[in-house]
């Protein structure tokens, strides 16, 4: 007996698969990503040194914050460092996302169109992807479903939230591909899946706190007289 899969089991399954693909993307492209990160580190260090120097020069010259900001905007060395950070960050972000999308496509299509009819994450949650009529979803429509997921993201996740609507509970990309996600496990959402979602929430809070501390440390480093 199958029933349409609910939003939270689908989210838990997706996040498990996303973690697997993200880890593989990071490991396989590690030499490239580390090079971009090193370029960003050098750029940020140069920005901190140059900002501190300009601040000191402005304080000694006229004790005028307006003069400090004018010097910041006109300083070619600072512009060069900002450009280095921007280029490295853009290359890291775009390169990683493209690699993730390509690897994710292979992972999704191979699993959904294969004998499991589900990714490992969906299989762990007792979910299965099928055609709208209940038959097997072929590789072509599995690929269309994966690509259609981009529209769900571009609609600020409204396409994903459509899966809340009963009775079909089909997301936008399911509808585009003529697919559905069924729950084949009558026991429902397991406790470990709720714990996994809770862990993600804690990780998001920790990342926010870390970012705040990192920005504070960067500002303090820029104002440290030892850097002048």
From TrEMBL:
The keyword Transmembrane helix applies. Pfam families: RDD. Residues 4-178 form the RDD domain. The chain crosses the membrane at residues 12-33, 85-107, 194-219. This is RDD family protein. It comes from the Bacteria. Keywords: Cell membrane, Membrane, Transmembrane, Transmembrane helix. It is a multi-pass membrane protein. GO terms for cellular component: plasma membrane. It is found in: Cell membrane. PANTHER family: PROLINE-RICH ANTIGEN HOMOLOG-RELATED.
């Amino acid at each position: 007996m199958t029933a349409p899969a609910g939003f939270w089991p689908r989210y838990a399954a997706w996040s498990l698969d996303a973690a697997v693909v993200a880890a593989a993307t990071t490991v396989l492209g590690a030499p490239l990503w580390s090079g971009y990160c090193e370029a960003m580190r050098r750029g940020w260090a140069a920005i901190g040194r140059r900002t501190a120097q300009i601040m000191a020069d402005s304080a000694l010259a006229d004790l005028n914050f307006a003069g400090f900001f004018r010097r910041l905007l006109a300083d070619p060395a600072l512009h060069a460092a900002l450009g280095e950070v921007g280029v490295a960050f853009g290359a890291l972000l775009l390169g990683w996302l493209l690699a993730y999308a390509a690897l994710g496509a292979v992972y999704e299509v191979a699993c959904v169109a294969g004998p499991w009819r589900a990714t490992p994450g969906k299989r762990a949650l007792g979910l299965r992807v099928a055609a709208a009529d209940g038959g097997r979803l072929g590789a072509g429509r599995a690929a269309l479903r994966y690509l259609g997921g981009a529209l769900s993201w571009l609609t600020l996740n409204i396409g994903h939230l459509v899966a809340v609507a009963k009775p079909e509970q089909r997301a936008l990309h399911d509808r585009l591909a003529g697919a559905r996600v069924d729950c084949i496990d009558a026991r429902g959402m397991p406790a470990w899946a709720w714990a996994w979602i809770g862990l993600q929430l804690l990780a998001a809070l920790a990342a926010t706190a870390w970012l705040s501390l990192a920005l504070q440390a960067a500002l303090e480093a820029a104002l440290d007289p030892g850097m002048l």
